[in-house]
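Task 17 of the worksheet. Students: predict the tertiary structure of the chain below and write it out as structure tokens. Keep your answer in the requested format; marks are given for formatting as well as content.
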Amino acid sequence: MALEYGARAVVIISGFLAVFFAFVAACCWRRFKKSRPPAFISYMLGYSVPFIVYLILSHRTTVDIEGIQKQVCKDLMAGEYKDPDWVPGRLLGTMGGNSLSTDFSEKVVNELREAPSISEVLGISPQVCEKDPDLWDEAIEL
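Model answer:
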């Protein structure tokens, strides 16, 4: 957690410094030799620092994976996937650039919409989704 906040602070501070150096470069823009160093520093602070920080810092630490798992579980248990506006279904429907993959994803989405809810088929209580995802295997025994 502290690593995330530290990385965000570094990126925000480098952004403010980049704006400051861009302003300094703009003030002396007509003199190339004086404007070049602050413009270069502004670029490095505004682009390179965030790039390096986010390259080193894994996105796994910044994304709430467990929250996403729980929400998808709740959606599947409640039969939300039948709704045409269900975001994962729309994402699946737009995946792929060629007609073959588009046809396949549309077929999968249509089959999901026609299927009964998972909680009805497997006889699982929707409260399973409230538990820790690591414990779902124990709760879902077929």
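Marker's comment: Residues 18 and 43 are 7 Å apart (CA to CA). DSSP finds seven helices and no strands in the chain.
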